[in-house]
Task: structure prediction
Amino acid sequence: MDTPDNGEGLKGVNFGPGFHATVGQHVDRSAYDRYVGDWSRLFVPTVLAAAEVAAADRILDIATGPGEAAALALAQVGPAGLVVGVDLSLAMLTAAHSRFAGARFRPVVSDGQALPFADATFDAVLCQLGLMFFPDPARGLAEFRRVLRPHRHAAVCVISTRERAPMWGVLAEILSRYLPAQQEVLHLSFALADAGRLERLLATTGFREISVTRETREGSFESFDDYWVPIEEGVGSLPQAYLALPAIASTGSTRGGAGAASAIRIQWTASNEC
Ligand SMILES: C[S@@+](CC[C@H](N)C(=O)[O-])C[C@H]1O[C@@H](n2cnc3c(N)ncnc32)[C@H](O)[C@@H]1O
Result:
């Protein structure tokens, strides 16, 4: 993998609705957790506190994925509350649905930019690591605002710059060298890293009393394989792109021998910022 992109792009990759789950394939929640979920979970308490989630609330978790924010929201709202998890990806919602069997969780397949709910339905709206993947985040935020009850709160968590979120930033950067035509989609995770832009988006979509803060959480890996194996499982846009590289698609795993691997090894203790 020392040779930069041959210009052929990602032949054969279909990122699937929402960019994270391959169409028709089951989401391996263990792989997802080790690639995103374990990191996401570190930020969820701050998000729920910002949304002022309380017992018996009716919560909307947009871009719920396998349910990182929903899990803690369910614990906080208790048996009298309800968490509705929306996602564009049926495979992601299936993973969440099986995780929360018997709990007060309702999965709904929908685009977060066009929600199938009446105005002022929810006591709080959450969007944990999802808004940056929306083609039109302002349209999404306007929908979040519309379905939120007056005087209640929405909380959105997005990823910072690729330099400040090396868990995904290093991979995005290296893949872009091989796939320059895919640069934009490979960097979607960092599309809302500019705090000023996020604040303006919130203000122009009708939110008031806006607060945008930067939060950093640290984690590390026991071994390089702990970092790399979930990527080879292919859950997430960057792992899907990696698996679709012509050299990988034809030969299978390159773990251990690849230029990409040695570049990532330098930074495998990561502190990620959202
Ligand atoms: C990085 S995952 C985050 C999942 C979960 N909230 C978490 O924190 O682990 C991003 C999720 O956003 C979903 N997504 C992307 N675009 C979306 C859209 N326009 N509407 C609804 N969900 C979307 C994806 O399918 C994926 O499940």
The pocket of S-adenosylmethionine is lined by residues 18-20, 36-37, 40, 63-65, 68-69, 86-89, 92, 111-113, 128-130, 133-134 (CB under 6 Å). Confidence is low (pLDDT under 50) at residues 1-9, 254-268.
